[in-house]
Amino acid sequence: MSTVENTTPFNGVASSTIVRATIVQASTVYNDTPATLEKAKKYIVEAASNGSKLVVFPEAFIGGYPRGFRFGLAVGVFNEEGRDEFRKYHASAIHVPGPEVEKLAELAGKNNVYLVMGAIEKDGYTLYCTALFFSPQGQFLGKHRKLMPTTLERCIWGQGDGSTIPVYDTPIGKLGAAICWENRMPLYRTALYAKGIELYCAPTADGSKEWQSSMLHIAIEGGCFVLSACQFCLRKDFPDHPDYLFTDWDDNKEHDAIVSQGGSVIISPMGQVLAGPNFESEGLITADLDLGEVARAKLYFDVVGHYSKPDVLSLTVNEHPKKPVTFVSKVEKAEDESNK
Amino acid sequence: MSTVENTTPFNGVASSTIVRATIVQASTVYNDTPATLEKAKKYIVEAASNGSKLVVFPEAFIGGYPRGFRFGLAVGVFNEEGRDEFRKYHASAIHVPGPEVEKLAELAGKNNVYLVMGAIEKDGYTLYCTALFFSPQGQFLGKHRKLMPTTLERCIWGQGDGSTIPVYDTPIGKLGAAICWENRMPLYRTALYAKGIELYCAPTADGSKEWQSSMLHIAIEGGCFVLSACQFCLRKDFPDHPDYLFTDWDDNKEHDAIVSQGGSVIISPMGQVLAGPNFESEGLITADLDLGEVARAKLYFDVVGHYSKPDVLSLTVNEHPKKPVTFVSKVEKAEDESNK
Amino acid sequence: MSTVENTTPFNGVASSTIVRATIVQASTVYNDTPATLEKAKKYIVEAASNGSKLVVFPEAFIGGYPRGFRFGLAVGVFNEEGRDEFRKYHASAIHVPGPEVEKLAELAGKNNVYLVMGAIEKDGYTLYCTALFFSPQGQFLGKHRKLMPTTLERCIWGQGDGSTIPVYDTPIGKLGAAICWENRMPLYRTALYAKGIELYCAPTADGSKEWQSSMLHIAIEGGCFVLSACQFCLRKDFPDHPDYLFTDWDDNKEHDAIVSQGGSVIISPMGQVLAGPNFESEGLITADLDLGEVARAKLYFDVVGHYSKPDVLSLTVNEHPKKPVTFVSKVEKAEDESNK
Amino acid sequence: MSTVENTTPFNGVASSTIVRATIVQASTVYNDTPATLEKAKKYIVEAASNGSKLVVFPEAFIGGYPRGFRFGLAVGVFNEEGRDEFRKYHASAIHVPGPEVEKLAELAGKNNVYLVMGAIEKDGYTLYCTALFFSPQGQFLGKHRKLMPTTLERCIWGQGDGSTIPVYDTPIGKLGAAICWENRMPLYRTALYAKGIELYCAPTADGSKEWQSSMLHIAIEGGCFVLSACQFCLRKDFPDHPDYLFTDWDDNKEHDAIVSQGGSVIISPMGQVLAGPNFESEGLITADLDLGEVARAKLYFDVVGHYSKPDVLSLTVNEHPKKPVTFVSKVEKAEDESNK
Amino acid sequence: MSTVENTTPFNGVASSTIVRATIVQASTVYNDTPATLEKAKKYIVEAASNGSKLVVFPEAFIGGYPRGFRFGLAVGVFNEEGRDEFRKYHASAIHVPGPEVEKLAELAGKNNVYLVMGAIEKDGYTLYCTALFFSPQGQFLGKHRKLMPTTLERCIWGQGDGSTIPVYDTPIGKLGAAICWENRMPLYRTALYAKGIELYCAPTADGSKEWQSSMLHIAIEGGCFVLSACQFCLRKDFPDHPDYLFTDWDDNKEHDAIVSQGGSVIISPMGQVLAGPNFESEGLITADLDLGEVARAKLYFDVVGHYSKPDVLSLTVNEHPKKPVTFVSKVEKAEDESNK
Amino acid sequence: MSTVENTTPFNGVASSTIVRATIVQASTVYNDTPATLEKAKKYIVEAASNGSKLVVFPEAFIGGYPRGFRFGLAVGVFNEEGRDEFRKYHASAIHVPGPEVEKLAELAGKNNVYLVMGAIEKDGYTLYCTALFFSPQGQFLGKHRKLMPTTLERCIWGQGDGSTIPVYDTPIGKLGAAICWENRMPLYRTALYAKGIELYCAPTADGSKEWQSSMLHIAIEGGCFVLSACQFCLRKDFPDHPDYLFTDWDDNKEHDAIVSQGGSVIISPMGQVLAGPNFESEGLITADLDLGEVARAKLYFDVVGHYSKPDVLSLTVNEHPKKPVTFVSKVEKAEDESNK
């Protein structure tokens, strides 16, 4: 993974390159993946026309983050409406690769941007919360599957494995992603740091104030730019459903009540907030990233470099894919099949 | 094997597709393979005219399941009548490919159905209990050879290997088969699950009540439709032979005594019995399969997806063909020869 | 693990040994672990006085199975009542080893029975759904932690690893356990079969009718006795809580409404139901197990013996403990600490 | 396997060593393994007192060769008497290692002979037809499990794998075994030849005249001494059972009718019959083997040496044990368990 | 190390225990260790009289944090004044164990508090930045040496090793420490989490605003109480010296200028700021810790429990002491010493 | 090679086909190849007029088997007479293809028989001991060159390679050959078995009694008809030569002494001797082969089918022609030639 020669101008000469980056703080069009893709297109075009070279979307933008859904779940209890809800949710998810991925690759190419897109991926009947990466050349670079879902997500999403922890070495810096509370996993972050991440994308569904502290801490800890993208959703963006639980908004289920407040933010390697957080509306958050800041920050603290202590603390990352069944002959073909 | 693009409507959009499927619960015409093919034709035509898109026949429908035969066998004892009985049984078996296979392909094509046919295959002088697969386009898709025969079957049939464990990705769902007590092999079933089986065909000769429990369990375990097809045979369907052992029918050897009671059944992924079991007569068992049930079922349990534990439990399936002798040069040709 | 010499009378001479076994179909005393232990004591004494040598309790008998609880969980939403509910549930769980475990060992010893007990184990702040094993000599033999929780259980319980998959070779047969839907995991079952399980305990919370099919199938597939133990609980056994979801009982929240209907059952290796299922009351389910049935069943089917096909299908079980952090020096002590 | 330094006088200097060898042509005491061991002891003592250094027993001497048994088997039919018959047969089989193996090792040591003993081994509930090897030092050397049972044996015995194909390099020559119709398997014989077998033991249950041709052919083909040991059994040696099929003796079921006629024989590497065949009575067959004959024979034909053609014909022997389930951690212990 | 039985009330019953804790935000008396100890005594007495059970001092409180010192250092240049400055600094440091350590143990005992004290330790002529731990029973529990100093600290302090990473299991919770930018080391924090830390002490010299984000992030990440203690120092607290470099205060070198602004803070496991930060004065920061918050927080996130992913990410902590010279004959003694 | 569709009546319907076959037990006319061909013609006509469809000649019938010749050879010694003797022997050998081959093809066609002829083939100045195959249609089908000559044959004949191991699928069964002690090579025989040989021709020069045992063993092992053809020669059939060594006949060098005693024999797949052995005279040995015997025999033993164990024992046959010099530009042509 982690592609490309490391002799890019940025890494080599380090004359201060400025890269414009944009976060799209917007809501999924629920139960309508084609419309969601259209919405993505609109924002990518707008960001690119502003000169952005990197566009980052929130977690689960494609497929949707089912905030407040319960899928009829309770311990030891099943429920037909919940099953049906899942079938609909499964239907909105996408295959990777697949036609939607091709469309996104085309969008990245046409608009000449790196694109990081949160999506719900389906592999058979198990869903994964995935970040997809695309290049300005219109290529699908690869994906990261969230390793560990949070609370009720565990009932609807599977767990990723170590085979999809990419960091791509691009001309605008080394690019990777941690999704939502993966940002709370110190060992996962360290794996990204060890791959040299410079443009640390954090597609998330956490719009809390505490989240801002974590983002700022990570920028400093990792010595990298942090780009946190969260959906901004109103009550009316969601389908109508009696099973919802909007804890904090229970009293106010009006159409314009805010269900996901965003808080997308861009922070520099030294902990300077460059843009956002925006807690108030759908829209673009844009900043110019001075890539020279990375080196400046690392003089004092380089988490996997001079400030590591490998004789005492060493992390092992198992990147082997984990599959319950392996077909020994015709391996590549068999693997493709077992993934359908 | 396991063919076709994974972008079929069923897997993609998952608007609830309904597929009509039929099991043929009928007896072989013993020692008369052409007549058996004629009988197959009659039922395929009838099922297709009812709108079925999938027709499944029992184990060994072609060639016959020699229930109660002993082939003169006892430990360490040989017997000329038994040898001769085997010669006749061998004569009723078919080559794959061969003229009977061509005829079945033609029948599937003319009637526009997927066809799963149990047959006794001969490869040299070793017989195999095989399931044959055909497409509505009139193609022979391939075969599955039973891996492990049961008790006395082991004296007349060989063992299949890992090279014939197909699951076909078709527009009506992913199609494969487990024959008779292969259905009791948890590792074999898991191999099928890992290939994504949705239409799990179980040609069998087991007409017991316990079999019903296994079928229901498999539907739930695999999250798939189970179509179990068993022959319904009367005493008079069998050739006359003094060596038979019809344990449960010993007192009643009249012509109309039931020798194989059928019990063919169709079950949904959530364990709902959709059609059958029929323990009383020859005939068709038909049900409409709502393919959306698969996703509904997988919300709670996905045996090779979110509910697997591959870091602890991993199955390896060796799909290499196993041959006692391999001819290195002119491989394909040599293989053909060694198979004659 | 999996202890003891293999020269026990049972395995050796196989003169038909009869073993009496009892399932305790009873409800946890919620939020009161000492009272739950007292209740366990009462039933163990009763079973032993009836001559039972093996007593099996349901899943989560100690600590409780929080049926219908939601812990305030929904996707992406948090809730203070739910957090507090978890704190209480955590308080009812037990350390292993710990004082409750010692008490259970003493009970097994005093009553001269093998005891299999479902319990909620706490390891730090992560809970595990565990089966505990005790010998008539008053020893705690070890434990099995459920590998994969089901739906909302995943939000409150962690996942076990391969280091706790014991099968104990005892004078009354080889003893192990699969908890609830682990019984649907074909690879896990196969691991138990490979260790020679003969007394297959299935502590569960699944009281459905489909469960009965799975139990019968497993008895036949594994060629072992299956002892499925499920709690029988009324509405009034549960603490009062507004967040419950008792899907099927929504209309009838009276105190005597059945919330968990039991269905505990004992089945022989040939699929004969020996006792139960009881869907109507709390109580003991007892049967005499003729251990000679195992050999009789295996003549036709031995799932990891003559009916396996290891050249094609081979399962690997990784029994290494999985820990996020390993302390290299003074290993045992460090491990103890990290487990506190 | 194939143990011991190859610097024994026999292999090295080849001054013509004479070794006395004895075959025990006798019947199992059916359903009484302790009595069978006593009978073995009597013959071993007798052979040793005659100066024999090698004693070879027939196939299945311990546990018994159930000639004529049908275990109630017919294709697709089950039978309770047959199951019970199997349970008894299973009870007569022995664990390897185990107390009976220890007793045999002691017998070999006390009588200062190499001992090759046919036995029915039980591993869980699957039986194997096994040859056991013991040294004059009173050690159990190891075993060979029959790879492929014949006809109805396949319903009661499992298949061995490549991990038990030993040839032991002893001071009296290289010692190995092929059981019954394994002697018809040219690839298996070649594996033994390639390990240098000189004392080719053929415990068998085939007492036919054609068998004599095969033994003579093998002696010449392999350039080795062949020692074929077959039971001599009368009707009265067998338990009474209505299910027997003694084809050729059907008319004459008297107590003194011969059921297995023996034909044990010892042949030199050049095809000279040194002792036997005895088709008439229980007893010892003894010959003096001039080990120098091996070299004399190989001048003209050395099947895996100068007369092989490895650029055209090469055999691969897979000696890996085949297990359906492998436990990765604590490997040796786990393997022991899974073998119980 | 990491002592005490795990059967404390807190872990067991979890009735909500409240513990009062105090941070001492105060300055070293530079170049006067006895006076510094007196100052420590004063604050410990005050905190204890307020009911505190835990008192935490800043990094290097004993020995002093030489903020702004340059020790005459520049690349490739030496300087006699700098050497002399180091001699003075070395003189203020303490031996561990030693008389100052005994005095501190006595203070903890008399005031019945757990005490965590930042100190400069001397081991020969190498200095270490160390945290010392004391119990209410008047015992010195042990120490943690900072693993990796920051920038110019590396010229005056050595690096700790893995043998001093204690977490003490106490009746008021599990207690450990990370010093200054060790708090930025994700692998070090994870080692503490794995030992179950609940009272995470962070003696520091970082008084920045970004530090607050890191503390809040750690509380959430670790699910633990964070107690960050930083000195509050004015210009006049420091000895007079021409080589100082007070970057941000260059214009204002008056006596009352703030040189270290404190910012000590106490945060709950769910990210709630319980006391502080105080950026304005020397003094005590006190809060009541509701230990039940730990369980409430872990429901959603348990960094080394249910939210770890050990099959992918595994950290190894080498706790062996690292010594340049090991005397082989005294191994056990050497290990004991490194633990003191 | 090994031609023809597999849809022949014999393999298909298996109504019991009877085929008459004849072995020609006769001597070469030494040093007179045209006369030898005339003699061949006489016997072929006779066999065909008796209804034979298959005629098999002995090893080296054309060119002669130089029994007792020494070609003046001794270790390290050369001899002009021997050279000259070889020149004469080379002159009697034939090219393949060539005029003698055409003549033989014509004979087969005219007499409507399959013909297997032993011949000495010359390829440049290296001779090969070859079996030639001809069809009733008058075609030369191909050849088999003996892989490994025996003792002194190695000084006058070369070694064949894997490119000439044909088995022809003919309407009267699958036809192939093993020459003389190739019949002792278990791997070579297995290659023939794997190609499905049913009519196993064994042209030989071995007239010993032990040979009969090998032939009978092979019939059983291979489940095929064995047709062993050996010359019957008197002293007077040989040219006069002082260098002869007729070991066993040294005392009796009279003209009528038997030098090669024949022993030609035909054996069925179940080991029944159908005709011969004739040890007394030149002449035809004829039998009717009931091809149904093959299936009857395979019920119990199918050496490369159900009785093989390919997961343990697998043979590789390298069929590439072995040539010391390969001309790259003419690859296809070279291969074609080697097959003629």
Automatic annotation (TrEMBL), chains A, B, C, D, E, F:
The reaction(s) annotated as catalysed by this protein in its Swiss-Prot or TrEMBL entry are: 3-cyano-L-alanine + 2 H2O = L-aspartate + NH4(+); L-asparagine = 3-cyano-L-alanine + H2O
Give the enzyme's main class according to its UniProt record, as a single word. Answer: hydrolase
Give yes or no: UniProt keyword Chloroplast.
Answer: no
- List its EC numbers: 3.5.5.1
Superkingdom field: Eukaryota
The residues annotated as the active site are: E59
Could you tell me which residue ranges the CN hydrolase domain spans?
19-291
Question: What is one process in the GO biological process aspect for this record?
Answer: detoxification of nitrogen compound
The UniProt keywords, alphabetically, are: Hydrolase
The reply on keyword Hydrolase is: yes
Q: Which family does it belong to?
A: Belongs to the carbon-nitrogen hydrolase superfamily. Nitrilase family.
Query: Under what name is this protein listed?
Result: nitrilase
Q: Name one GO molecular function term.
A: nitrile hydratase activity
